[in-house]
């Protein structure tokens, strides 16, 4: 089998920076536990590796009364992940005595600042993205009264409440999705101001995947199932008319993936290189699930 990698895949700059900050903090702290607020990145295997290095994922529930950290964090380092957090969460961490290590992606920080600026000037802030995504929740926290829209239909229902409207994009939204939302709002609100904050890494990955699909018979996406950008890669591969699978590890490769003469390989922005290489090796060697079980 011929295995071909996409030209752009794996960890983006923001994720690499967050992981390096977390690991560097753990190294400096020695035996003292370091926390991240929620999983640092959307990849279970990478989160497990961080845990082994002394970086523990702290859930928001553990900050509540009766939770692990409710009595105070006593100066412990807490890493804010690349997605960022609302200002209220920063205040909560500070009140608990945390030392905040800010790993928020610079692009997300820029979106937070723009949202806060528009809100302070009395604008209605609309955020194009996934309402359940951590980045979107963080941006919304900087613009009280903002609204999140996931598609053109929701954009039709936006009530500006008599205020001018500004649109900010989630950094990982597909450009086509953003443009569809923007078109509706531009038609409804002629004075619309837009912030095209889509990360070029997202578009670069999707463009590389499209080029890859033209050269292979099937596609494997490596990444966490809880990763929005990884799921978007899988959906795009299927939209391109290719058989495609999402796996978190080489052990999850389905037998059907080995039935093609050429397979393309892409990976989400949180996926460690080690996992990509293991999947690539398993495919190239033709080690189907049954065959792989007998490998030492």
Molecular structure report:
The chain is an alpha/beta fold and 296 residues long. It has 3 domains: 2-11 and 201-292, Cobalt-precorrin-4 Transmethylase, domain 1; 13-103, Rossmann fold, CATH 3.40.50.11270; 107-195, 4-hydroxy-3-methylbut-2-enyl diphosphate reductase, catalytic domain (Cobalt-precorrin-4 Transmethylase, domain 1, 3-Layer(aba) Sandwich). 40% of the residues lie in helices and 17% in strands. The chain is built from 11 helices and 12 strands. It has a 4-stranded parallel beta sheet with strand order 1-12-10-11, with helices on both faces. The chain has a 4-stranded parallel beta sheet with strand order 3-2-4-5, with helices on both faces. Helix 4 packs parallel to helix 5 and helix 8 (200-213) runs parallel beside helix 9 (228-239). The longest helix has 17 residues, at 13-29. The model has no long low-confidence stretch (mean pLDDT 92).
